[in-house]
Every structure is written in C-alpha cells, then in structure tokens.
Amino acid sequence: MPALIAGALLLLVTACGGGDGSSSNAKAGGASAAEDTKASEAVVTVVPADNAKDVATNGALKISADKGKLTAVAVADSKGNAVAGKISADGLGWIPDQHLASATQYKVHAVAKDTKGRESAKDTTFTTLVPKNTFIGQYVPEDGSTVGVGMPVSINFNRGITNPEAVEKAIAVTAEPSVPVEGHWFGNDRLDFRPEKYWAPGTKVTVKLNLDGVEGRPGVYGKQTRTLHFTIGRSQVSTVDASAHTMRVERDGQLLRTIPISAGAPANTTYNGQMVISEKFEVTRMNGATVGFGGEYDIKDVPHAMRLSSSGTFIHGNYWGDPSVFGSVNTSHGCVGMRDARGAGDPSKPAAWFYDNSLVGDVVVVKNSKDKVIQPDNGLNGWNLSWSEWTK
Question: Does DNA-binding count among this protein's keywords (predicted)?
Fold first, then answer.
C-alpha cells in the first residue's frame, strides 16, 4: 500500500507540474491553436453590390481582393450557366471574358487567402438590366444545311451597329478541320465571315451567336443566343465565259459539263466576278420593274432560277428565247440564261440539269463580259475582295 500511494503521488505531480520543457511545449501548442482560429485578413469586394438591380451587361462586374489574393471565383446565372473569366496574375482582381446577358440574375462566389493561408469568402447576387430597345441578326446559311464551298456566314442586323467591335467579338465562327475565319463589315448593318479561300469540301462549320446583352449602339442591346451548324458539300465552281457563250461546270476539279448560255446583251451586260448562289427557285416570277427596267419584261414562270446578286442577277432557264441564241449570242437583261422547258418539267434540258446539280453556296464565276466586277456586298459575293482587303 505505501508503494502504491507513492506511485500515485508521483503520477499526480508529473501530470500537474512537470519539468520546464513540458510546460513550454504546452504553452506553444496553445498559442498555435489560437493563431489558426483567427479570422482571415483578406477582404473580397464584389461590384455591383449584393442584390443590385438594373446592372449594365458590360464593364460593371468586378471582383477584387485586399490584404490577400483571389484563389477561386465562380459566377453563374440562375440556370447554372457559368460565366468565363480569369483571375489576374497578381491575384488581386477578376473580370468576365465577355459581356453578361440582359434581364438575368447572377450569383457570385469568390474566395481569397491572406498571407497566412486563411480563407475569406463572399457570396452575392445581382440582376442585369432589362433593355428597352433591342436588335437581332438575320443569318444565312440555315442551321443543319449542306452548302457549297463559296457560302459565307452572312448576318444582317435590323438596327445599325455603332459598336462593331463588341458585336463581332460576340460571334464565333469555327471550322473542322480548322482554318482561320475572319469577319468583314459591309456598312453598319451587315457582317460576313469567310476563310481566305473557298471552304474545303466536308468542312463542318459552327456559328455561335452570343449577342444577348451586347450593346450594339447606345441603349440598344442584342437578344440572341444560338449555336448553328452547317456542312460544306462537294466543290462545284462553274465558269461562265460571256464572250464564248459557254459555262464550264467543274466538280472537285473535274469537268462535268459544258453548257451553252446566253448572257447580258450589249446594253445590259452581266457583271464579271465570283458570285455565290444564294437562293434557288424551281419556278419564279421576274418583273423588270423591280430591278429598274420599267415594263420591259414580266415573266411569271421563269424556270430553274438561282440568285447570284441582290440587285437581280440570276442564272436561270429560258423557254421563250430561240434555241439558237444559246451558245451564240448574248440577249438577256444581265442574267445568264440556259435552254429550258416551260414549267420546269423536262429534266433533260440543260437548265434543269444545272439546277438539280447545284447547291446554295456554289460558285459561279463570270468572265469576259464587258462590265465591271460585281460589288462584294451585292449578294454573297465577298470573294471579290482580296484577303488583305477582307481583314483590314
């Protein structure tokens, strides 16, 4: 019993008092624990303020850190769509890569660390403005279509654009296999995209319109968000020689057929240059009054008509002309005519064959006409600009 009591007393003394080293370690441990639980010195600031309304879609969202560095930033709309952005190299700020959508609620979660690794977070919500005035872009080609190698992406805006850089930045045109694609403005309401040379056959093209929230002109905002896809078909380039009265149709570099034609008469010559088929009509009406020719003609059933310009240049079938003119003389008001049957019902006629073997986006080149080269914005004919002119 005396021995047990002595041992217990010794254990009690060791546990309560201990030596100098044990006392020092305990104090150090207590100090570290206190330090770890101290609040972070980092301060996260989000502009606009929490619950802000009517926030601008561009330039308003900014996230910063003071007495620390940002380590994580997440911004998303109410549907969970993330807003891309980058933390600056010094860790002190974050801004979005692009504009925000209009009339949309966003949530922000940002985290920063101070010099001792302690985290500070901030969560806010804000809502962007509801625009009073908007614009849209009408585009070609159609989603899911297969088109010829000359087809550009052409977007016509219903309001004149005074901030073209912002609008162009919000549109991405990419190709697979990859090729550089650049935009070119015609005036302030049309933006076309094309590669340097005709598309390669089989190319898959993707167009992303991220116009919702873009301020295209003061107080006027885009309202489109859409992704389109189209495919480039085989390569077909047809060359009209207005002097020889012929058209050579080449597919993938091989001659398919040479067709006798009749181009514009001396008083109404056909434009020279590279033209793209933009529309196809099995039968259509052509009235000279709509293109400045008064009452010179009004043909209600022109067969196999394919548009080459906005100003009224077509390549089409002709049943009313004497068959002898095709391949020998130019007699039209500026169009390119081929022999055809009334009603577009005879597939053996040259115009029917060409119509059936053509796609929107195919190229028709006119040469040796006593006229100027067609303006690049007259139809889908931007190929008449050199690459340096297109990209400047």
Answer: no
Say how far apart CA 123 and CA 158 lie, in whole Å: 39
From 184, 304, 316, 333, the catalytic residue: 316
**pTM for the full predicted model:** 0.86
- Mean pLDDT over each residue of the chain, to the nearest integer: 91
- Residue 86: is its pLDDT beyond 80? yes
User: What pLDDT shows up at residue 293?
Assistant: 67
Considering the domain 133-232, what is its CATH architecture?
Sandwich (2.60)
In angstroms, how far is the first alpha carbon of the chain from the final one? 104
Q: Are 164 and 190 in contact (CB under 8 A)?
A: no
Query: Can you give the residue ranges of every domain in the chain?
Result: 43-128, 133-232, 236-391
* Architecture (CATH level 2) of domain 43-128: Sandwich (2.60)
Which of 275, 271, 240, 274 is CA-nearest to residue 258?
240
Identify the active-site residue in 99, 245, 304, 335: 335
- Catalytic, 333? Answer no
Q: For residues 126 and 106, what is the distance between their CA atoms, to the nearest angstrom?
A: 6
Do β-strands 119-128 and 52-55 pair in parallel, antiparallel, or remain unpaired? parallel
CATH topology of domain 236-391: L,D-transpeptidase catalytic domain-like (2.40.440)
The DSSP call for residue 199 is: P
Backbone φ, ψ for residue 183 (5° rounding)? -95, 155
The pLDDT assigned to 287 comes to 83
335 as an active site residue: the answer is yes
